[in-house]
Automatic annotation (TrEMBL):
The keyword Transcription applies. Residues 188-288 form the DUF6596 domain. The lineage of its organism: Bacteria, Bacillati, Actinomycetota, Actinomycetes, Streptosporangiales. It comes from Microbispora amethystogenes. This is RNA polymerase subunit sigma-24. Residues 119-170 form the RNA polymerase sigma factor 70 region 4 type domain. It holds the Pfam family Sigma70_r2. Belongs to the sigma-70 factor family. ECF subfamily. Residues 20-79 form the RNA polymerase sigma-70 region domain. PANTHER family: BLL0085 PROTEIN (PTHR47756:SF1), BLL6612 PROTEIN-RELATED (PTHR47756). Keywords: Sigma factor, Transcription, Transcription regulation.
Amino acid sequence: MTSPDPHRAVEAVWRIESARVIAALARMVNDIGLAEELAQDALVAALEEWPRKGVPDNPGAWLTLTAKHRALDRFRRRDTYQRKLQEIGRDMELRQESAEAELDDALDDHIGDDLLRLIFTACHPALPAEGRLALTLRLLGGLSTAEIARAFLVPEPTVGQRISRAKRTLADRKIPIELPPPAELPVRLASLLEVVYLIFNEGYAATSGDDWTRPSLCQEAIRLGRVLAGLMPAEPEVHGLLALMELQASRIPARTAPDGTPVLLLDQDRGHWDRLLVRRGLEALRRAGELGTLGPYGLQAAIAACHARALTPQATDWERIAALYRLLAHLTPSPVVELNRAVAVGMAYGPARGLEIADGLQDEHALRGYAHLPAVRGDLLARLGRSEEAAAEFRRAAGLTRNARERDLFLARATALSA
C-alpha cells in the first residue's frame, strides 16, 4: 500500500472507476443523485484516508466497498433499511449480517448491465440536449463541473444548474434506472448515440472560443464509444459511430499548424494522420457492416473511410462519397447533409454542379446563421473564378462563426481572393 502521490492517485482512480461505482449504487437506490452523492462520500473518504494509509492494492474495489457501506448507513438512518431490502427482493426477516453480504454480492454483479442502465438514463430523451451532455460527462466521464464548463466554454454555475435540473427531472418524473424495453430501444439508443457524437463534434470542431479543436473531448467521446461497443456488441450503429469517431479523430494531429492555425482537409499532411486510429476505425466499420445494413453513423463512417484510404487528396473517391451522401440524405434528410453533398458533388463533377445544390439551400431556415453555407458557396465560387462573389461569401461566413480560429481562416480566404 504505497504511492508517491496519493492525491493524484485518487483523482486517477475516480476518473476510471466512478461510473462503475455510481452505476452499481444507482441500481440499488434507484436515484442517480443519491448514487452520486454516496460515491462522492467514498471519494472524500479516500482523500482523507489514502494519504495517511497509502493507496490500496485495489483502489476501485475500495471505493465501491466504501460507497456500499455509506448506502447501508443511509438506509438505517432513514429507517428505510427493511423497505429497501424488500424492494430488492430480500426476506425482511433475514439477519443483518446476511443482508449486508447479499447486498455486497448484488452490487458486485452485472457491472455491464449497471453501466448500460446508467448510460441510458443519463441520455434519456426526457432531458434537454444540454442536460444529457452535462450529465453524461459528469457520471460516465468522471469530469468535474469545472472541467465540463471549460470544455464547452460556459460558466460553471450554468453547468451545475444543467446537471441539477437533469437529476431533478429524472426524479420528478420517476424515470426508473433501467434498460429500456425492446420497443423503446431504437429511440433511446438514438438519443444515447447522439449525445456521444455531440461530445465528439464539440471536440473535433469547437463551436466557439479560441481553439480550432479540443482533443480531450474527442478522446472522452471515443472512450464512451468503446464502452458502448463492449456493452452492446450486436448493435451495428454503435460500431458505426465508433468507426466514424476514430476515423475523424485520426486527422486531428494534421488539422492545425504548429501555431494553431487551422489546416483544411485537402491541405493536410496525411503522413501525420494517426494510422492506428485509422485501422481501428476501418475495423469497427467492417464490424458494423457484418452486423447489418449501415445506418446514419455507419454511412458517415464509410464517407470518412474514403478519405482515410486515400493516400493523397487526388486519390480520394469523390464519386463514391457523393453517392454515400445521397444515401445518407435519403435515410436522414437534412440541409446539413445536403450541404456536405454539395461539396462532394463539386469535387466529383465540378464546382458548378456543387454550387447548384448549395444555392438551393439558401432559403433553408435551419441554415440561417450557419457559417458553413456561405463558406461552401465561397469555395465553389472561387473555383469557378468568381473571386469577388467568393470573397463576399467568406466575409459573411466570418461574421457568422463564433470560433476565433475559423473566423481568421475565413477572413484570410476573403483577403486572398480580394487581392
